[in-house]
Structures are given as C-alpha cells and as structure tokens.
C-alpha cells in the first residue's frame, strides 16, 4: 500500500495563504505528491490558495479557537478521515526529501507507539542547529525542546529514540491513538497541548519516539510571532494546568511557587492573569486526573 493510501497530512496556519504557507506546501508536494493535505486556516483572512502546488490540497477556514482546535478540525476532515496515519505540521515547517517514510517505518515496527516526530532543525542556521528532538519537562513543569540549539552534526543516533513527549510542530500520529484520546484538548488554546496529548496517551499505555533520520526545518516562532504578552499568559497558565493534571504533589507546589516568583517580573499583568486563571482551572484538572486514574483500575 502506498503512502498516499495510508497517510493524510494536516497543516495549520494562523497567517493564512502567503509565502510561508506556500513554502510548506511546495516542500510537501515535492516529497509526497500523492498524500492528501488539509490546510486548516484560522487567520480570518479571505485569501484563497490560488497557487497550490498540487491538486490534492483542501483549504478549510475556521474561527480561531487555537492550535488544538484547528488540528482537530483537520483530523476529522473527509479528505483524511480514512487515513491510518495522520501527519501534523505547522505552516512554518519545511519538510525534507523522504521525511515521511522513516516515521511510517517506526510506527509499523512498534505497534505501541502512538506518535513519532522528526528532527526539527532551526531554519537558516549555519551550521544547522537542532530545534527539537522531543519534549521534556523540568522540575517546575515547564516544557522545553530536547537538544535545542545543539549542532545537527552532534546527533549521532539517527534511529528511533524513546521520548516522553513529542512536539506539536511536526509529527505523525496513529488514527487509533487520536481516537483513543479524542484529539487535542481545545481548552488550552495554545501551548502545552502537545504535552497534554502525550501525557494522556501515556496514561493509556501509548509510547512516543523521535526519528532523527527524518529531518524538517522549522522557522521557530514564525506562526506565533504576533502574540505579544498573550504568549506569556498562555504558556504560564497552561504550565499550571498540566502540572495539576499530571504532576506529583511536589511538582504542583514547585509550579505554583515559580508562578508566584514571576509575579515580580515583566510582563506583570500577563503573569498575574496567568496565575489566577491557572489556579482557577486546577480543580477541574485535578478532578479529571482522578477520573482518569479511577477508569484505569
């Protein structure tokens, strides 16, 4: 069975049709011309994809309810609804030649793996620098990219490596996994939705991988560059929520203490609102944690 019969791709864009999205789609068309692509556009722009590089691209406009909501719309689109494997890309990602096959091979070889990411390399760096080899959390519940800004040449192992979490910027997921966890949690809006997805998957026994033999370039921050202080608000609020949902009592305490310390720093208003909104959402996160624990017994 060909990749085009097994795989569908979802590309999310908050910028809408333009040079960045065109570069992303052109690279997909050059690498995997037979794979159906759904572009989910929450930019609010009326512009159309007039110069799509191939015919099998669907352009869907939606209201801006965040990254996770846009991705979920793409996952459910009829063009990819029958795909066994679903790729997810931000519009600021440019895939490399044959990037998809190593990811597919990893999922074929390991049935317990829910999702696999390529090596993300920072665009326009010389020598090339790594953006992400997976995601990890520190003792305060803050997420960061594994291998960030190490040189690509230092990545000796190009085979599958086990990671606790994968980045939402570029990955390939099993449809069965998405059905199992019901997609992204849209309440987070932006940031930590990949952490939440993977942690919910881990609770159900799913595993995650990074395959560095698959390489894509990422223009880091290009898709969220207009957020301003909202970036701080969303990152800090969602860090507290995910800490409450998945962390130990000690981690939750450290996460709250870090938020309190940050109230003294700019942007103070964003930190204050993030702390208040995060605390307000914690009881629900703790309740859902209890429900998930009880359901696994």
TrEMBL record:
<keyword id="KW-0328">Glycosyltransferase</keyword>
<keyword id="KW-0808">Transferase</keyword>
<dbReference type="Pfam" id="PF13641">
    <property type="entry name" value="Glyco_tranf_2_3"/>
</dbReference>
<dbReference type="GO" id="GO:0016757">
    <property type="term" value="F:glycosyltransferase activity"/>
</dbReference>
<dbReference type="InterPro" id="IPR029044">
    <property type="entry name" value="Nucleotide-diphossugar_trans"/>
</dbReference>
<protein>
    <submittedName>
        <fullName>Glycosyltransferase</fullName>
        <ecNumber>2.4.-.-</ecNumber>
    </submittedName>
</protein>
<comment type="pathway">
    <text>Cell wall biogenesis; cell wall polysaccharide biosynthesis.</text>
</comment>
<comment type="similarity">
    <text>Belongs to the glycosyltransferase 2 family.</text>
</comment>
